[in-house]
Specification:
The two termini are about 45 Å apart. Strand 3 and strand 4 form a beta hairpin. The longest helix has 19 residues. By secondary structure, the protein is an alpha+beta fold. Helix 1 packs across helix 11 and helix 5 crosses helix 9. It contains 15 helices and 16 strands. The strands form three sheets. An eight-stranded mixed beta sheet has the order 1-5-6-11-10-9-7-8. The protein is elongated, with a radius of gyration of 28 Å.
């Protein structure tokens, strides 16, 4: 056994799992394009202040989970713990606000958080996210939520539950937080240690607790819907109307909040009960002040993110198979060592014609090569011997029926074209 092992909270994506990850990521980019989204790639690390300003100093991510370091120039940097802040920074810095609104961007990136590893959650993890910037229209909220839900449906994930709420705006939320903090303080003895710490620092985060005892107390907590202003209520009512227009089923949870400081108005989560207590598979909401807070134009926005490993866990729990190991179209074998270079050349020619080709290496007898072809689940073999090279016609063998015929390279290619 190697004396080196992977760092806790990280993972090796072996071929089958890596191909599944790639499938999900590629599927997302393609699916989101139907809604007008374009891919954006931002740096893996940014100035630490970028995340502290957006996510919030009192959040667990900033206080406990962010990977921070000083570079050789003494700059305070951090591995990105989430994607929105980087996208907004890039939006402002590169003047993307000049594009037609809303500007729709998708990212597929690795994120980093020093949190306790558990099922579907890692310290280095993949995230698919979308941001729609430049419109306050509640119809956009509905479209974004529908996109989030429809993508999961396209992957055949079942038993999804959409939960929505309104978190209000900066004008009305302080009044709610004051009432909430009073309620929580009076019940502090009934909460877990983590919730007790959050009461003073960030009371909205108490709703994120999954412990049954805390949830029981929180069921009696004041509802933010009773404290949001009329403008926010009207916005939320329109979101619900548009969702119904799109035939999107939803449940309203008056205690649903998003933990980052930048969220306003519409908040939503998509959950999957089979994932256990940490049942959120995706979530997002509006962030109408963040761009202006960063020094950019006063432009509203809405976005969401998936935990890609959470989707993979859902596949596992629901026995969803979306990927099968690619089999070689043809296995190229040689009769004698002298023909190996010709087999190598012919393999390259077939690949140029977009065929999946495998061949054996090292010194193997023909029988051993054909056994390898069987292990690779190849259906056909092209045998290259001295006679074949002289005639230009190669032995093409069906490995299932054992039938064989003599074909030129062009005839081999045409045979696969006819079958596709």
């Amino acid at each position: 056994m190697s004396k080196y092992t992977r760092v806790r909270g990280t993972q090796d994506f072996l071929p089958e799992r890596a191909e599944l990850l790639h499938f999900i990521n590629e599927s997302a980019v393609s699916f989101f394009e139907n809604y007008g989204y374009r891919l954006i790639i931002t740096p893996t690390f940014e100035n630490s202040e970028l995340f502290k300003r957006s996510v919030g100093e009192s959040t667990d991510i900033i206080q406990k989970e962010m990977y921070e370091f000083k570079d050789k120039g003494g700059r305070d940097l951090a591995l990105r713990p989430e994607g929105t802040a980087s996208v907004v920074r890039a939006y402002i810095e590169n003047n993307l606000g000049e594009l037609p609104k809303p500007v729709k961007l998708i990212y597929v990136s690795q994120m980093f958080r020093y949190e306790r590893p558990q099922a579907g959650r890692y310290r280095e993890f993949w995230q698919i996210g979308a941001e729609a910037i430049g419109s306050p229209d509640p119809a956009l909220d509905a479209e974004v939520i529908e996109l989030c839900l429809n993508f999961l449906n396209s992957l055949a994930v079942k038993d999804l539950k959409l939960i929505i709420n309104s978190m209000g705006c900066r004008n009305c939320r302080p009044g709610y937080i004051k009432v909430l903090k009073k309620f929580l303080s009076e019940k502090e003895a009934l909460f877990c240690k983590t919730c007790s710490q959050r009461i003073e620092q960030n009371p909205l985060r108490v709703f994120d607790c999954k412990q049954k005892e805390c949830q029981k107390v929180l069921s009696e907590a004041p509802k933010i819907s009773d404290y949001i202003c009329e403008e926010d209520k009207e916005h939320f009512e329109k979101v619900k109307i548009y969702l119904k227009t799109l035939n999107v089923e939803f449940v309203i949870d008056p205690h649903l909040v998003r933990g980052f400081d930048y969220y306003t108005r519409t908040a939503f989560e998509i959950t999957l009960s089979s994932l256990g207590s940490q049942d959120a598979i995706a979530g997002g909401g509006r962030y109408d002040y963040l761009i202006k807070d960063y020094g950019g134009p006063d432009e509203p926005a809405i976005g969401f993110a998936f935990g890609t490993e959470r989707i993979m866990l859902a596949f596992e729990n629901q026995n969803i198979t979306v990927f099968t190991e690619p089999e070689p179209d043809v296995f190229v074998a040689w009769v004698e060592e002298a023909q190996k270079s010709d087999a190598l050349r012919i393999s390259a020619m077939l690949r140029e014609k977009h065929l999946r080709v495998s061949m054996a290496f090292d010194s193997r007898k023909l029988k051993s090569q054909l056994k390898l072809a069987d292990k690779l689940n190849a259906n056909t073999a092209l045998i290259v011997g001295e006679e074949e090279i002289k005639s230009g016609k190669y032995t093409f063998k069906d490995l299932e029926s054992a039938k064989q015929e003599k074909l030129t390279i062009e005839e081999v290619v045409n045979k696969f074209k006819d079958n596709k």
